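$ ./design --mode recover --in tokens.txt
reading tokens...
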């Protein structure tokens, strides 16, 4: 499958995502109906969000724990269905925000946050703990640190964007008064700070396993 067939899709954390700009509810409902039929035919089922004006789609192979050819094939099919209705895709309009909490005691505090959020805390791929919704988006994850006194800030935002959107997003943040803390981990992520020193990371899937 060519990369061009996936230009309508943003490779964001845990999945391929896009927004189809339908313009009205009836068009969106008709498109979702066609998407559902294609999903049944493929025996592979996405997350679909229908609102007035657009349809958001998340494709992810939960059984494999990654994006697979099943996702790519269905993504290409969905793009075909949308084009047939003259519905444009807007992958760069999507952002995934994750909240990270620095802690030296992940296993100790994770159950508290899982109880508060009424979700399950699971050990992640890199031996950190995560609290995820639908096994896709992280509601909260815990970043390991050395034991230390509680600082003024322990939360930070991870903002996941399409790799094509990273540099424009960083430029906009810097123009708005932010500063670059480090690009040592680019293109996987850049650490930015607001004028008060609060951190946010612009993240992409590039360079990750």
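writing sequence...
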């Amino acid at each position: 499958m060519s990369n061009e067939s996936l230009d309508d899709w943003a490779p964001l954390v845990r999945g391929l995502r896009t927004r189809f700009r339908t313009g009205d509810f009836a068009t969106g409902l008709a498109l979702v109906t066609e998407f559902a039929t294609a999903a049944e035919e493929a025996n592979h089922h996405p997350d679909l969000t229908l609102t007035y004006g657009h349809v958001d789609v998340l494709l992810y192979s939960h059984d494999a724990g990654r994006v697979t050819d099943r996702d790519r094939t269905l993504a290409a099919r969905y793009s075909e269905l949308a084009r047939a209705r003259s519905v444009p895709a807007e992958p760069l309009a999507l952002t995934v925000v994750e909240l990270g909490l620095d802690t030296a005691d992940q296993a100790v505090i994770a159950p508290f946050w899982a109880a508060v959020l009424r979700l399950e805390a699971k050990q992640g791929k890199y031996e950190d703990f995560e609290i995820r919704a639908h096994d896709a988006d992280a509601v909260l994850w815990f970043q390991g640190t050395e034991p230390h006194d509680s600082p003024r800030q322990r939360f930070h935002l991870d903002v996941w964007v399409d790799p094509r959107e990273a540099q424009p997003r960083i430029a906009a943040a810097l123009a708005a008064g932010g500063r670059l803390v480090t690009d040592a981990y680019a293109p996987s992520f850049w650490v930015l700070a607001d004028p008060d020193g609060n951190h946010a990371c612009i993240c992409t899937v590039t360079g990750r396993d």
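exit 0
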